[in-house]
Amino acid sequence: MNTRLLLPALLLCLPLAACGNHDKNKAAAELDSASIGQKVQEATDKARREIAQGNISVSDGNNIKAEITPQGDFLVNGEKVPLDASQRALMLDYRKQVEALAGAGMDIGVAGAGLGVKAASEALKGIFSGDTQGIEERVNAEAAKIEAEAKKLCGLLPGMMARQQALAAAVPAFKPYATMDQTDIDDCGK
Question: How does pLDDT run across 150-167, given as a tens digit for each residue?
Fold first, then answer.
């Protein structure tokens, strides 16, 4: 991690350090970390339920509302597009890929929030103990794990594009929503 990321974490900690009561400040920081982690987990769990149980919106860039239901129905402006069994199977396969991509993105978001909390916690520990050696290395190690997860997410994109193209070929009404192209894959992770 470069110092551009460490500096904001340290600046956020200064008001706590200035209060003067080491034990209270340390306890407050640990409570805040637990509270933040719990809130992030609750929000992520809620989002996962909504994705699994609700309709997934797809966009064509022209504000025509389209959704894929958990049952594999394709709705355009609230109207069901007739699908045969193989088209529905493709729709469900694509939906499953969207869910996997969203889940991977949420995992990265949770890890990023955890990294922020860890960086702040490490900075506070360093301020309170006077031992600031190794903070950047420990935070960098966590950041490297998140980067590896992001690369895994990028690895899902070719499969998603293939499913999207197959679905667009099988369901003409879906074609305007198959907007992914190779640049989306190539630009992932930059």
Answer: 778 888 899 999 999 999
